[in-house]
Specification:
Cytochrome Bc1 Complex, Chain D, domain 2, about 45% helix
Length: about 230
């Protein structure tokens, strides 16, 4: 019996050795599956409200953020560790991959802010306040707030906590952009209660069907603020 079992085990080992090795898909999508552990399936965003959507954002914006993590303009340990050894050509491939994904957005949760707060946020987002030098969010982020090529992200479809956290990081200096850093300049003009109103309104808005980033500014078109991250450096 013992001899029979040894022979059986030997046969199994030999069969396993003769089997063809498992095929591994060495595609960019397969390599970037690691990103979806935090950023959700296909980069749709994680349900935790902190790890943002990657799919469909302008490639220039995604490239800038990868470079910002690598070069110290943004601070988040896991991202820095992943991005630090990667050269710019590979970062461009990553950005282009996620930018090309066209996936539906989830509906926003019901707003928790009072109506008057949401109304104030809507006014600032869509009209700004010229008397205080506050341009509307639409001036840079597109008329539908779904972003603008080549490198300005959309503001809709982002969780309230993520929006508030990133704007707060700009105010505290934990997040920076290519100089001149127009977001940091703009946020310094906005009192905290108005910042909260804008965030609450943005987070309550659904993303329009077939949302795409708006076209790049035409030649000679001036944005309300000089933004170093509005173009690819």
């Amino acid at each position: 019996m013992r001899a029979f079992l040894l022979a059986l085990c030997s046969a199994a080992i030999c069969a396993a050795a003769d089997a063809a090795p498992a095929s591994i898909d060495d595609s960019l999508a397969q390599r970037l599956a690691a990103c979806t552990v935090c950023h959700g399936k296909a980069g749709r965003a994680a349900p935790d409200g902190y790890h943002p959507r990657l799919a469909g954002k302008p490639a220039g914006y995604l490239l800038h953020q990868l470079q910002n993590f690598r070069d110290g303009r943004r601070r988040y340990g896991p991202m820095v560790t992943l991005i630090d050894p990667l050269p710019d050509p590979y970062l461009r491939e990553i950005a282009a991959h996620f930018a090309a994904l066209d996936l539906p957005y989830a509906a926003p949760p019901p707003p928790q802010a009072p109506p008057e707060m949401l109304a104030r946020g809507r006014t600032l987002a869509l009209q700004g306040d010229a008397a205080r030098g506050l341009p509307a969010c639409t001036a840079c982020h597109g008329q539908t707030l779904t972003g603008r090529l080549p490198a300005t992200p959309g503001l809709l479809g982002l969780p309230h906590d993520y929006l508030r956290g990133q704007l707060g990081a700009w105010l505290s200096g934990l997040r920076r952009a290519h100089a001149p850093d127009c977001m940091a300049e703009l946020l310094r003009r906005l009192p905290g209660e108005e910042l909260n109103a804008v965030v609450a309104w943005l987070a309550s808005q659904p993303v329009p069907p077939d949302a795409k980033p708006a076209a790049a500014p035409a030649a000679g078109e001036l944005l309300p603020l000089r933004c170093g991250s509005a173009v690819t450096p």
